[in-house]
Amino acid sequence: MGDYLSQISTLFSEYDVLGAFWVNIQLTFWAAILSLILGTFLALMRISPIPSLRWAGTTYVNLVRNTPLTVIMTFMVLAVWTQLQISLADNFEQNFFRLAVVGLTVYHAAFVCESIRSGVNTVPLGQAEAARAIGLSFVPAARLVILPQAFRGAVAPLGNTLIALLKNSTVAAAASVTNETSSLMRNMIEFNSSEIYSIFFIFAIGYVILVIPIGLLTTSLSNRLAVRR
């Protein structure tokens, strides 16, 4: 046991493990905000009374959900940056960071959309009918009546999506983000192969520490905000 603790202490002193986790937390934070915005618009499209919008939203969700995240991340680098020469920042590392955020956003917005749509299904049909009865069109009815209740019913699935986003942020290595956890773990194993168990323990425990509070918080919020029928 003492040897493992000594190895872990040495690894922490040689590598910026906390800094790598901080990069993943930042990736998750920005992608979570952007995917929530995009996912909400997609959910509105999917429940829209306009058939073309419903078709577009459904196509996006089905296409993106069935595309591996690694493919999307690789596309952001090889197509968006290399071929189209679209740069999101002058700084080299910051550019790849933002490309990774966009890739994570595009992918997880589809799951956010379905989470919100599941919340919409918990809203009684009479709520939408009452909104129409008082003269509200689709967008005001969705903004004032449907979505506030839908978000309350979607807390748990949104929490699961956030957890998946946090873990999937390690795929940012495919977008050439070199200072996040998966890249650091690969480097640590390459130069410290005899300490592979200690390295695995460090990153496993790190993600457990990040994921469990999210699960507990979203479960608590889900129970607190649940609409009592």
List descriptors.
229 residues; mainly alpha; MetI-like fold; 10 helices; globular; ArtM/GltK/GlnP/TcyL/YhdX-like; membrane
Descriptive notes:
The protein has helices spanning 2-14, 17-46, 51-65, 69-83, 92-120, 125-133, 138-153, 155-168, 181-191, 196-225. The chain is an all-alpha fold. It has a single domain (2-225), classed as MetI-like (MetI-like fold, Orthogonal Bundle), CATH 1.10.3720. α3 packs across α5 (92-120) and α4 packs across α5. The longest helix is centred in the first third of the chain and has 30 residues, at 17-46. The termini are far apart.
Strand content: under 5%
In the CATH hierarchy, what is the architecture at level 2? Orthogonal Bundle
* Oligomer class: single chain
Q: Under CATH, the topology is which? A: MetI-like fold
Task: Give the mean pLDDT.
Answer: 85
**Annotation, overall tally of beta strands:** 0
Q: Specify the biggest β-sheet.
A: none
CATH H level: which superfamily? MetI-like
At the first level of CATH, the class is Mainly Alpha
Uncertain segments are none
Task: Please tell me the total number of domains.
Answer: 1
- Indicate the radius of gyration in whole angstroms: 21 Å
| SSE string, helices as H and strands as E | HHHHHHHHHH
- Our count of helices gives 10
Give the structural class.
mainly alpha
Task: Label the overall shape.
Answer: globular
Helix content: over 70%
